[in-house]
Write a structure and sequence with these properties.
mainly alpha, 434 Repressor (Amino-terminal Domain), 3 strands, 50% helix, 9 helices
Length: 189
Amino acid sequence: MKRKKDTITREGQDWSNWTDAARKNLANREATAEQVAAEPTLIRWLTVTAAERNITLRDVATELGVTYGYIAQLRLGVRKLASVSDEFVTKVAAFLGLPRISVLAACGRVRLDDFVSVPNLEQTIDSAFAFIERDKVWGGVMPVSLRGGDTQVKLFVIRLYEAATGKILIPFREQLPAEATQTGSVGRK
């Protein structure tokens, strides 16, 4: 590095106003809203909390007793959130001011089905369909041909019924397998 009057040069670059260069570098490193939204829930919580407190993720790492590299590895998916230590979970919960169970859920170590049993898709659909068949208003107008029909058609009828009556026949819909929400991909009966 050569030093001229008020200009610092390094590899041919003018660093006379290094604070502006440092600010630009930091601005380029800041995550965009889209990048933050795409991050795993726990990392998003840490990123948003850091921004709200006007601190960096390096500061967050220090407060949590880990290195910035560890946070970066979690952020990039190099390390799996589900494998973080109990001590880390406890420190994150305290830092975020959340119950520990929330952090465990955000890490993917605890899921809803750890608390509630979700019946299999076929049983759920058959049970909901039977309920509609017993309904005094809608059961009487339902074509008999639907009774032995395609599971996907039954699911469609159930959704129509739920929309028309406001009743929820399939609780924990988000827990159903992905194929239950895609037309034509659930197995036939």
